[in-house]
Prior knowledge:
By secondary structure, the chain is of the alpha+beta class. The chain has helices spanning 2-8, 12-26, 38-45, 50-61, 85-94, 121-124, and strands at 68-76, 79-83, 113-119. The protein folds into 2 domains: 2-68, no CATH class; 71-115, no CATH class. Helix content is 43%, strand content 16%. Strand 1 and strand 2 form a beta hairpin.
Amino acid sequence: MRQINHDLGRDPSVRAACIAIVDYLAGQPVQNLQHITFGALGRMAGTTSLAEIMPAIRYLTGAALPLLDPQFEFIDGEFIEPLSTTEVAEARGSGIFYHPESGEQVADFATKIFMHFSLSEEGKGLTTCR
């Protein structure tokens, strides 16, 4: 908490959101923190506004305090495939994505790639429940 207070002392709303998220994460079993959605982070911080929670997410996934790791999944009906950040960046950069199962180009791939978060290795150190 000391680092959050130091880094975000001039931004009380982001600081409060980060502290609320970290407090929540610290009290949860690690196995429950592998698929954390934007909505869940908002509930932890006490907001439903994505605009309000994004600065806290950027901070908690950034270099200063990397407690959360961004994760991606391609979901097409019942088919779910984890994607690396490199795969997502390449698809976004080129505008081309191939279905991991069929190999066919997916025209609307951006609507089928979803982001969530998992607890980073550093984040696992803050949980009191193992």
